[in-house]
Design goal:
One of its GO terms (biological process) is protein insertion into membrane. One of its GO terms (molecular function) is zinc ion binding. Pfam families: Zn_ribbon_3CxxC. It is a single-pass membrane protein. The chain has 195 residues and is of the alpha+beta class. Helices cover 23% and strands 29% of the residues. The strands form two sheets. Strands 1-5-4-3-2 form a five-stranded mixed beta sheet. A hairpin with a 6-residue loop joins strand 6 and strand 7. It is globular. The chain starts with 13 loop residues before the first helix and ends in an 8-residue tail after the last helix. 27% of the residues are buried. Bound molecules: zinc ion (2 copies). One zinc ion binds next to helix 4. The site of one zinc ion (ZN) has 8 residues, from helix 2.
Amino acid sequence: MATNQQVPQQCPTNFQIIEPLFYREFEATDPVGLEWTLERMPRNVNTKRIKLDKNQMSGKWLYTSYNTNGKFRCLRCMKSGVTDIDPTWSSAYTTILFRAYYGPDTDENGQQWIGGWIQMKVFAQQCKNCDEYVTGELDDQKYHNVVKWLHQWIAHKFYGYPLPRFGYRGRRSDRHHLGNRCEACEAGWCHYRGK
Ligand SMILES: [Zn+2]
Ligand SMILES: [Zn+2]
C-alpha cells in the first residue's frame, strides 16, 4: 500500500451542519415555525459592530452574536507536514454572528413574500504559525445548542417570548485568547474582555 501523506478530508462547513438542525428545530416548534430561512451571510456585509445603531440594527437587520467553545485546525499547516508545530487549537471565544429580518422580500421572479431571513457567519481566528485565517468547528452538542439558542432568540425578538437563558459566554479569565488574531475581536463582537 502506498503511504502517501493524506490530505485532510474536506469537512462539511458549519453552515452545512447547522442548516438541517435549524429546520428541524424551527419546524418542530410553533409559532416560529416554517416562516424562517437560514442563509450564509454574504461576504460583502460589513460586520463591524460599531456600524450598528443602539438597537443593534443596521438597516432592516437585527444583529446578535453567540459565544461558544470551538476547535480550530489549520489545514495549510497540516498539509505542510511540519511535525514540530501543532496546527490545532481550541478557543472559548469562538463567535458566531447572526442577523435576522422579518418582512417582505422579493424573489427572482418579482414575487413578494413575507417571511423571516437569518444569516450567519462564524468568525475566524488566525493561525499562529502561518497566519492563515481558520474557521472554528463545534462538537455535535454545541451545534445543537447554537440552534436551540437561535430559536429562542428569534421567538423572543420577533414573537415576544421570554428568553430563558443566554449562550455560553466564555471565561473572562482566559488569558490565552489572542485578540489580534481573532476576527470577532476585530469586528467588536468577541466576548473576550481581556487585553
Ligand atoms: Zn497554519
Ligand atoms: Zn476574540
